[in-house]
Request: fold
Amino acid sequence: MMLNDLPDVRGVLTPNRDLSELTWMRVGGPADVLFQPADAEDLSAFLAALPSDVPVFAMGVGSNLIVRDGGVRGVVIRLGRGFNGIEFHDDIVRAGAAALDMHVARKAAAEGLNLTFLRTIPGSIGGAVRMNAGCYGDYMADVLQDVQVVMRDGSQRTLSAADLDLKYRSSSLPDGAVIVSATLRAPKEDAQILEDRMAAQLAKRDETQPTKDRTAGSTFRNPAGFSSTGKADDSHDLKAWKVIDDAGMRGAVRGGAVMNTMHSNFLTNAGGATAADLEGLGEDVRKKVYQTSGLTLEWEIMRVGEPAPTD
Reply:
C-alpha cells in the first residue's frame, strides 16, 4: 500500500511501520501503514475517504496485544496527543481514548472521584472500554455512560454503555469503529482516602505480579462465571493461574517465551522471543490445561496480524 494511494491527512501516515516497539511484548512485524490522526475530525475524514475494502485496526498503547511476526495488513490507527484529554464536570469524567488508565485514576482521585480500580490497569481508556477492564471487583461497566466513536465509514456517533453489551473482558463494539473518548460517572469520595487506596493497590500489585518483566498483563481470562454486567459471580471462582499451576505449566518455556514463575498467568518475553514463541506457548498452556482439567482457557491478550512468511 503506497502513501499516495491514501487520503490526505493532517496527522502522520507512516508506511511499513514496525509495530514491535509499540507493544509491551516488543514483538511483531510491520503495519502496511500506521496512521496517527491529529484529532477526531482528521480520523473521520480519513476513514470516510479510505476505500471500504482496506482493513483497519485500532491499537492503543500495546499493553494487551501480540502482533504476529508477519505484521498487520491495511491501516493501523494509533491515537495520540489529540485524544488524551481529561475533563471533569461534577461527578462526570470525560476522557480521551488515548488517556492512560492510571492518569485518569490519579486525576479523578484529586477531584474526589473514585476511579481507583483503573490505577493498576495498564493501557488506555479506549482499550479499557473495549475490554471492559476491571479489578478489585469494579469494572468499566459500573461507571461507563457512553463513548464517542468514529465508524468505519467516517461518521461520528455516540454509543451508550448498553449499546456495547459489556461483559467480562469483552464488548460488542461495531466492526471498524474507533473509540475516541468515553464519558464516565464516578462515585464521590474523600481524595486522601482514594490516594491511600491506590497506594495500597500498587504495593499489592508489585508484590504479586511481575511488573518489571516484559509481559502484556494477564494472558487468559479467569474461567469463572460472570453476570451480564461483567461482574464476577462468586459462586464459581476459578482462577487462570491456579489451573495453569495444576497443569504443571508455571515456568513452561518455548523459545524466548516463558510462563512467568512469579505469576503463571503472565506470558513473558524473557529475551529474544518471537510472537510465534509467545502465542505458541500460550496454546501449549491451553492444551495442557484442557487435558488435565477439561477447562478451555480463553485468551485475554489480543493477537492480530499474520504469521511470518515461510520459505
